[in-house]
Amino acid sequence: MFKLLSSFIFSLIILSLSVEAQTKKEAGFFLGTSYYIGDINPTRQFYNPSPSVGVMFKLFFNDRHCLRFNGLYGQFKGNDKDFSNEYQQFRNESFSASLLDVSTIYEFNFLPFRFNDRKIVFSPFLFGGLGYDFIISSKYPIGNHFSIPFGTGIKYMASRKVTLGIEWSFRKTFKDNIDGVEDPGLASENSLISNKDWYSFAGFFITFRLFDNTGNCPAYQQKQ
Predict the structure, then answer these.
(1) What is the rounded CA–CA span in Å between residue 99 and residue 94?
(2) What is the pLDDT of residue 198?
(3) pLDDT reading at 138 higher than 90
(4) At 107, is the pLDDT very low, low, confident or very high (cuts 50, 70, 90)?
(5) Helices and strands, number each (H, E), in the chain
């Protein structure tokens, strides 16, 4: 699986480098919160949220499709004492971890998001891809690992060069010990979908267009 995921990410990077020079490009920042879902917190969204920050770079193939590279830093923590479950109260586990997530993501806009035609200035979007995560600190030795990021959001074209937005994403991991607690069931009953830990990022982003030459277009000037 490592070779397969590595080959896929490498192919996406080569594809982005081969895009024509006039392809629209954006770079920006993310600010929000991060939290974890796993054995200590099975279902509660936005449990023990911590600050998160990040950077992003986007290559737009057209007004609906783009390739995006993310670097996100977040913190995650959990404590059995936060839950009324009798087993968790008896187990009394807790953890905290810091993580750097690096990912390659495909993003799809539901509405045509044209930089040189501001008739449509917002669009909901979906995204998904592949990531690699570096555990910076933790109570337990976890090791670095692959993840599958996916999520949704909405973006707004504040000006010809600035885009604002909000997004909510999840990272599906292939590990069950990020919180230091492994599922007590038989290993044969585990799968890549169940019995694995997740984490999530939610927040705001701002991106800026790079190498913007559309202002020289007379047709664009007439629409302002």
Answers:
(1) 17
(2) 93
(3) no
(4) very high
(5) 3, 8
Residue 214 tokens read as 């559309």
Q: Classify domain 2-18+30-223 at the CATH topology level.
A: Porin (2.40.160)
Output the six-digit token pair for 64.
Answer: 């609906």
Q: How many whole angstroms separate alpha carbon 130 and alpha carbon 171?
A: 9
Mean pLDDT, rounded, for 31-57: 94
Task: Please report which residue ranges of the chain form alpha helices under DSSP H.
Answer: 2-17, 86-91, 218-223
pLDDT digits (tens, 9 = 90+) for 145-199: 899 999 999 999 998 889 999 999 999 998 888 888 876 554 444 444 456 789 9
Rounding to the nearest 10 degrees, give the CA dihedral for residues 147, 151, 154, 156.
10
Note whether 210 and 176 are within 8 A (CB).
no
Q: Would you state the structure tokens that stand for residue 66, as one six-digit string?
A: 């783009």
Identity at 24, one-letter amino acid code: K
Which residues contact residue 218 at a Cβ distance below 8 angstroms, ignoring those fewer than 6 apart? none
Cβ burial of 102 (10 Å; 0-12, 13-18, 19+) is middle
CA angle 151, 126, 201 (to 5 degrees): 25
